[in-house]
Amino acid sequence: MSTIGTSSPRIDGAGKVRGTAPYAFEHVSDALYLWPITATVARGRVTSVDSSVAVATDGVELVLTVFDAPRLADTSDGDLTILQSPEISYRGQLIGAVVARTPEIAREAAASVLVEHLSEDHDTVFRADHPDSHRPQKVNGGFETTSRTGEPDRILDDPPADTVVVDEWYSTPEEHNNPMEPHTVVAIWAPAEQVLTLYDSTQSTQGVVSSLAPVLGLEPEQMRVIAPHVGGGFGSKGSPHSHDVLAAMAAMRLPGRAVKFAVPRQHMFAYVGHRASTRSRIRLAAGLDGRVSALVHEAWVHSARAKEFAEQAAVSSRMMYTADHRRTDHHVVPLDVPPPFWMRAPGEAPGMFAGEVAMDELAERLGMDPIELRVRNEPADDPESGKPWSSRRLVDCLRLGADRFGWDRRPAPAAHRDGRWLVGYGVASSTYPHMVNPGNEAAISHRSGRFSVRIAATDIGTGAWTALTLIAADALGVAADRIDLQIGDSVLPKATVAGGSSGTSSWGSAIVSAARRFRERYGENPPEAAEVTATTEQNPDTERFRISSFGAHFVEAHVDADTGEIRIPRMLGVFSIGRVINPRTVRSQLIGGMTFGISMALHEESVRDPRFGHVVTQDLAEYHIPVHADIADVDAVWLDDADEHATPMGSRGAGEIGIVGSAAAVVNAVHDATGVRVRDLPVRLDDLLYGLPDR
Q1: CATH number for 477
Q2: How far apart are CA 342 and CA 628, in angstroms?
Q3: What amino acid positions are annotated as catalytic residues?
Q4: Geometric angle at alpha carbon 232, from 227 and 236, rounded to 5°
């Protein structure tokens, strides 16, 4: 029997609806509560701390400051190194904490702590011509900073006759991950066993262990991290941050007591990561037939002086379309801000916004349909490596999407109205790399006709509980209701992070390897207590082929002719993502990503005050995200496209491709409606005013 591809309800759904599925903060009832103290200058040092009132407050159990905190064993990671010196690297940096019997006492006592700072000149303004801009050694994902083929600059600087050139700048703002469940941790230090247990809202329980154990001076076996249910992460929970260190410090000072720390929503805009702002210069040269001859994508991103993180914003341009001459380059601008980190599709989301709007501009200047332009530049093999594609059906996605969306009824640009609304259509391509992380391990055992499947995977709301159960059942040849899945605990067999759309591929491959070994050893009638453990089998096809997912977004935009107000009544995504494990949850993931793209295009922007260095839009009232009125008919479909080169399940990742390119499709549709080309996100009403019709 085959369970893969069956539309299945979430195994954890009932527990979540009933409120019985425990999230990090809900573990342990008898606990103390931590409230953080943060720096109120963007750069400088703490000169004094007066915590006498807090210490004397009834119910306060501990006050930590930069002057009396435990020493960390490893201070090489600037994101995790806190309370080790008076130096302040960014506003909002953790510089102390109060732990008390109730959250109210902890918060009030923390407010009574008097901190004096020495403020120094700071710089939080991102710009491409920053004097400290430099090329990093590597960019996120381990990619080379620069790549070059041919002589693109020569062609673009002196283009041949009958060549159309696009040379424009595009930007995306600083953005912040805001999952419904904020970063939360419950820390307990057991002195007798010398073990630190964390109930953590994380995308990788074992990643927390491997990152924090050296910092805290512990051996890995002295840490256990538990996370059966996580309320979203969007990348920010892919690694521990300084709040985990602070909770661990407090717990180790209060042996045997549980310390709870739920990061306040306002602090989600400080010390738990964010998407860096980007600036991209895209240069394209194409003949009158639309074939791109030269492409240059130079990207600038901001980072932090405390720790460098270089987002790989130009990487997708290395392989998306044909161009015999191409160059991509990355630059980092260090600022006095918190360290950036992963946010859904880091690199690809801002980079493909720039690239896909540039392609739309090229189509406009050529007088060519933007779908036809993309089809004419479809590469037979990977332009970057020269390897054959395992499966690249972008053209099929474009053609099917155009047919389903009614692209042939696309009105002339800036020429169609529906009452007071200007109407336009937009399209953009999407891609996301296929990732299977090495080192995953699964254990399978049999008792009384049931199969226990154990792996330290993490379900961050994406449906891993259900998908891994379906994969295990399919690989063992049994019904899904005979599978007992155990995930979300660092003591389970090895599992890599739920990030980079790699979770199902990485963990599922390990489960299939274990199931194959189990069936080879025990057959279809295993004895009681039969058990095997296996790691992911090596897949040589990942070296022989270029494996990526692809898709196409189609957007209908309405713009109010009087006010410039934007509505998106219709959006369609068509994707090639390999074999779909669970259609129900995959569709949810794709629609979620597309909604993320609408949000990126029209709403999201973290506004940092350059005078003081902090984000002023630090709540969900002022950091704008879509509401129901903004999201109407959003639909996602996929091709029947098993990719046997990718994983033993034939699947590829589906978590992040929905956001890649979707913001560009929105912006391209807005241009089609108004004739106004917006190159800087988010789109503002005043960007469109000069394109609105005269009354």
Answers
A1: 3.30.365.10
A2: 26
A3: 656
A4: 90
